Amino acid sequence: MREKHIKWLLQITILLLALLSVYVFLKLYSVWAPFLVMFKAVIIPFLISAFITYLLHPVVERLHRKGLPRSISILIIYFLFFGLIGYGIYRGVPVLITQLRDLSENFPQFTMIYNQWMDSIHDHTDTWPVGIHDRIDLMFSKTEEWLAVTIEKAINSLKGIFDYMLLLAIIPFLVFYMLKDYEQIKKAAWYLTPRRWRSGSIQFLKDIDHSLGNYIRGQLFVCLIIGTLAFLTLWIFHVKYPLILGLLIGTTNIIPYFGPVIGAVPALIIAATMSTKTVIIVIVLIASLQFIEGNILGPLIVGKSLHMHPIVIMLALLAGGEIGGVIGLMLAVPVIVILKVMIVHLALLRRQH
Questions:
Q1: Is the pLDDT of residue 137 over 70?
Q2: Whole-angstrom Cα distance, residue 274 to residue 240?
Q3: Could you tell me the pTM of the whole model?
Q4: Which helix (H) or strand (E) holds 267?
Q5: What are the TM regions of this chain, as residue ranges (predicted)?
Q6: DSSP secondary-structure letter at 275?
Q7: Is 337 buried (19+), middle (13-18) or exposed (0-12) by CB count in 10 A?
């Protein structure tokens, strides 16, 4: 009994010391802040490059299996990927800055229409319970604040893009060498991993890649197609800010269930300032894109790679939205998939021991 008390006391002491260490560490922010800046300057390009390499490597392997030399496969995919991105930045950024500046100047007009919609929703939901009503008001007010801040940040980021040219220039080189030495990197990771964790870690990463890899690649490709179709359609029908709305519709499409609604609201608000005909065009466009995505692109490209019930996905989205807003919604599905794989592996480890 005494040994048990000593053990508990030791654990509490270790916990208190750990909390004290964290407190002291945070208080010394001014000391380690410069190292954090340096670390971010190194790790951010590396993580971006690693993610791009992860996306492109299966395509390189597929070309290689069809008979192309690996080096030629890498060069083809490499130049296609970065060539298209470079051309898109070259042609798109000036147009995007112009549209964002115009959107910022006309923002009060859009806000007025938005507020009218909110008043209408408020009137129609006035009989609902107070808690639900307050929750809806809070959600829309947060969305409005986020939209205003996002537009301002986007303009400032695009204006300062040349400050990050060195950072952006490093990424293609890192991706090239990561693709070229992919097998060597895997071997290095194998030898750096402790022996007792090797088999479990490899299986864990394989399961994550199997559950999440195809979903991420497929979903990003679907978002690219949906965003491009939205931009072209809006541009053909002379809807204002087609590039901004196309990017927004394409980006939010990565969010299951809620993404189309988030992407549709700004488009409808802008269309409402033009004409009733434009509103109808936008409604038909959004409905058509969702039909194409749900019945053609989704099943064909993404499929059912998640193997997860829709209720679990919706609960994850609600939690992600509560914790991190729109970014949380985008990251909710990948996080819940990784947690699912972790739980399965932990359960297997417990059975083995």
A1: no
A2: 8
A3: 0.67
A4: helix 259-272
A5: 7-26, 32-56, 68-90, 161-179, 220-237, 243-272, 279-303, 323-349
A6: -
A7: buried
